[in-house]
Amino acid sequence: MIDLLRRIGLWGRGVVVAIPYLWLLLFFLVPFLIVFGISLSEAMLAQPPYAPLVDWLVDEDAGTTKLQILLNLSNYLRLGGDDLYILAYLNSVKIALVTTVCCLLLGYPMAYAIARAEPAKRGPLMMLVILPFWTSFLIRIYAWIGILKANGVVDNLLQWTGLTTEPFELLYSDWAVYIGMTYCYLPFMVLPLYATLEKLDPTLLEAAADLGCRPWKAFLTVTLPLSLPGIIAGSLLVFIPSVGEFVTPELLGGPDTLMIGRVLWNEFFANRDWPVASAVAIALLLFLVVPIMVFQHVQGRQTEAGR
Amino acid sequence: MAVQPIRKPTRLEPWQDPGQKPYVRIEKVTKTFGDFVAVDEVSLSIYRGEFFALLGGSGSGKTTLLRMLAGFETPTEGKIFIDGVDMAGIPPYERPVNMMFQSYALFPHMSVEQNVAFGLKQDGVAKAEIAERVGAMLDLVQLGKFAKRKPHQLSGGQRQRVALARSLVKRPKLLLLDEPLGALDKRLREQTQFELVNIQEKLGVTFIVVTHDQEEAMTMSSRIAVMNHGVIAQTGTPTEIYEYPQSRFVAEFIGSVNMFEGRVVEDQADHVLIRSEDAGCDLYINHAVSVPSNATVAVAVRPEKIALSKEPPANADGRNVTGGIVREIAYLGDVSIYLVELKTGKTVRVTAPNVVRRTEMPITWDDEVYLSWRPFAGVVLTQ
Asked: Can you give the residue ranges of every domain in chain A?
């Protein structure tokens, strides 16, 4: 009886573990392999618009059938050869980096203040950080258009105070993209930072003060190094989606705001060049896997140190 | 419980010498948190080189008082002077004081060495000197081999010694210790008590230690202030606190005690006689008390000062002698605790050393016994 239960228990555990793995296999690994396959094929006017990788060549004269696998690396070579792609990658990284730094500079004091607030106030304050997520992302971006456009809230305010007499438009510039993306991704920075700062033992700061350390220096030597896991987690959570961001720069950015997300969009929908678009996506992925692995490595070390 | 203070009495103790200036002076300090009064008009003088214990239960205000000395809390009222300097408005990082935290508060991202060096770095001490002083301090606490380890790789006792080294390396004139031995197991605690006292005597630093453990306070300190509900119930040497408690609270907090209620019938310069229904006999005590005649007082008699016998003691004049029946015996190895029910119904606790083996002991359950004690044994509690 016990033996049977144990076997059922093991089986039950197997199911629980298998479900997420199956999910990942079906909806992550398989699509990834499909995209990877497309990136190695050739574009053609067909339905779907690319040449099959694997083909059966039937030689009727000889009466044989041959298996043909055509791997086309030229899509990747094109990425390296065309300035457009390299510039788009670099520009995406630049915008993502600026966004990450802005989020960090804004989010750290926020997370610190919330973590140091009275315990009863922390919940509501955290709620306020998450609250914007309850409305649609697009609505919030449209709201920013209203704020930043010529004759919008910012412009009117500036003209009213007399700081400028000319109509002043922030919209359709890199600035608008920075503002919009920082706004969107700020909670992703605040949440992990808050989690690490809240766990930080305040007596460590008392100990530092007791040993003659001024508050500002105690922040640099104790708080900052101990919140590093939160900084890394938050930065990656902001940086990685920022690199591939499409909607915000599309709506707030100018015509010259070149990001890899837009290039991808154009390749897929304007050029209908699925293989190149897939290659762009795969390259972007490889490019982002490196920071993720660094993060995993640091996290692994941290958990080890926490033991 | 009979803890011998390990301190040898030397010369005139500083607190008895009117010419001595206190190193730490606490003047009518009050600290309130909202409606709660944590420390209530406490005044204390602590002298250079003392090992001073603040003893009390949780919520007695002892830790708050310590934190005010360190500068983490500001007194609501009153003043604190350290070495003659008013500490009002002086932040923790500018006080000539170091603290050893109850949780040790070691920096988890720094090695043992870096933890100990931290304070010296803040003062801009030269690198070579830092290395030398850190090395010497780690040797003192016997952690030289562990210099490169991180705190999480150390045992509780080792962490405690890192914390001690870190707080001593700056050579503070005053070291505050918040439950320094609280996280250690019993055996390690006893061993560390002696180490702490040795280090304190070697370095000549003034120690103020907060503890809830009366045994710890008795063993280590030169003087103890017993705190209760934010006020100091009594200050004195361990012997004074144990032998001459002034209040019921102190008598009951330190060790165990038998309490007899009685009425003063004779109050002379050299003795006092108290008639106690409770004890079932007259209590004769060879010191005077200044209470009005007929006043009701409490008399404390320590369990180890009561003798048990099956025969009535010789030259008994009916004073300090009473009888009862042994109800419980607890054998603790070195001593046994007897709970004796008096004829008056009161239960008295008696401890006696086990001079003979348990099996040969003359007194056993339900024996009728006599309890007697000498005139110096009782203490009249005036508060």
From this structure: 75-306
The fraction of chain B above a pLDDT of 90, given in percent, is 58
Phi, psi of A143 (to 5 degrees): -60, -40
Fold observed for domain A75-306: MetI-like fold (1.10.3720)
Question: Most B CBs within 10 Å: which of A196, A206, A210, as the mutation test of the B interface?
Answer: A210
Could you tell me the domains of chain B?
14-96+172-251 (3.40.50.300), 256-381 (2.40.50.140)
Is the Cβ pair B93, A305 closer than 8 Å?
Answer: no
Tell me which chain A residues have a C-beta less than 8 angstroms from the C-beta of B71.
209
Residue to substitute from B72, B87, B149, B178, interface A, most A β-carbons within 10 A: B72
- Which B-chain residues 46-105 have CB contacts (< 8 A) with chain A? 70-72, 91-94, 97-99, 101, 103, 105
Nearest CA distance, A189 vs chain B (angstrom): 23
Q: What is the pLDDT of residues A259-269, one digit of tens each?
A: 888 888 888 88
Residue with token string 């079906």: A26
pLDDT score recorded for residue B167: 94
Residue B357: pLDDT band with limits 50, 70, 90: confident
Instruction: Identify the pLDDT of residue B383.
Output: 66
Cβ separation B108–A222 shorter than 8 A: no
pLDDT tens string B59-108: 899 999 999 999 999 999 999 999 999 999 999 999 999 999 999 999 99
Distances (CA, A) of A162 to A150, A166, A169, A176: 15, 10, 15, 22
Evaluate whether B182 touches B102 at the Cβ level (below 8 Å): yes
Task: Show residues of chain B in contact with A208, CB under 8 Å.
Answer: 107, 118
What is the helix, strand, coil percentage profile of chain B, to 5?
25, 35, 40
Interface predicted TM-score (ipTM) of this complex, two decimals? 0.84
Nearest to B340 by CA among B360, B359, B363: B363
Question: Residue holding tokens 């290039």?
Answer: A263
